[in-house]
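User: I'm putting together a teaching handout on how multi-component assemblies are represented. Below are the sequence lines for each component of a complex, exactly as they appear in our records. Could you produce the 3D structure of the whole assembly as structure tokens, so the students can see both representations side by side? Please keep the chain order the same as the input.
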Amino acid sequence: MEKKAAQIRLDTLTALYDASKGNVGSLMSVVEILVNLYYKEMRIDPAKPGWDGQDYMILSKSDSVLVQYAILADLGFFDKSELSYYGKSGALLKTCPDIKVPGIFATLSGGGQGLSVATGLALSLKTARKNNRVFTLVGDYELMKGQIWEAALCAAHYKLDNLVMFIDDPILDIESGVKVDKIQDKFEAFGWSVIQVLNGHDFEEISNAIHKSSAISRKPICIWCNTIAGKGIEFAERKASYLNASLSDGEMSYVIPKLEQLV
Amino acid sequence: MKKGAREKLVMAGKKHSKIVFLCGQQCDESAEFLQYFAERSFCLGTGWQNVIGVAVGFVIGGRIPVVLMNYDDVIAAIAQIKENICQPNLNVKIFVVGGDDKFDVSVMECLPNMKICESVEEMVESYGPGYLRISKMVLS
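Assistant: Of course. Below is the structure of the complete assembly, with chains in the same order as your input.
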């Protein structure tokens, strides 16, 4: 799994560099969560995209969609060459999730919208008496959006225990402005069951949290992951300045060989 | 007219088992749907941006959501209607009661793929985002 995470980081950074776009810090913090879900925990079959028994991932943190694209390409949902056109005019892979991309279920933008979609899907599946699970990944900044709390209230009301929300809560060197704190208390007050993952880059810890969530009934589940912004790029880790930045030629020539050694 | 449209919506619900009715809070319309389709009617709270997102989730789950909204609430969720429903051309129907001007209809006409419908039948039988507004003027 560590090798797979390194490969996804490599593919993501390469596509990001080709597109001359930023978001390095924001992208790298979610790699282990998504790799764990797609390669270990979720029931998916790229050969059968409409499969009735599949689990779903609704990526609410839309600025991390490139990591999801890299994983979907690696799994064979679409050709890996599409990654090199990421974000370009007319390309399949847009900078926000789009249902035209195989493996993506909803068109989202702006942040804060994915939890509502995941809630609707979980409610639809539950009322159809299906046992598929719905996963969603939310960024910490999205918790400031009112829609997240509207959805949180709704999901708890309908006791959606087939809904698992990951929160990517990255550590940064400079914390400024308003930030949602006491995440556990807030979601528990809304009727959710909260599991904290102290190291959101530890596969075993993430897996344990997912297995614990399977035993919870009649409550939606929040897996609150403490992560590191820019994880895997040593000079960018925890740096707020790299959160929405792209890497220079020199930085890429330093990082790529290091990641290639891990693959 | 209002009662007629409501009865037609109930008939559409009977005809199409994939239709689900989503509303914000208990109202005359939702009470009627709850009576006929208890397992297909959901009062989701008045967070309208969330209601639109939930409708998208129901589409992924293979259903046809009909969202019952008040005129005053439509504009509050316009970004979600545009980005989550209209741009990907999802089969979500929006049924709006109230209002005595055409502001909302004018806004909806600007959205990609959105069809302004004149009857329940037109809204339900066509594929894609549909908008039907029953105004107070018509009601009176």
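A couple of points students might notice: Chain A touches chain B at residues 56, 58, 98-100, 105-110, 113-125, 127-128, 146-147, 149-151, 153-154, 157-158 (CB under 8 Å). The radius of gyration of chain A is 17 Å.
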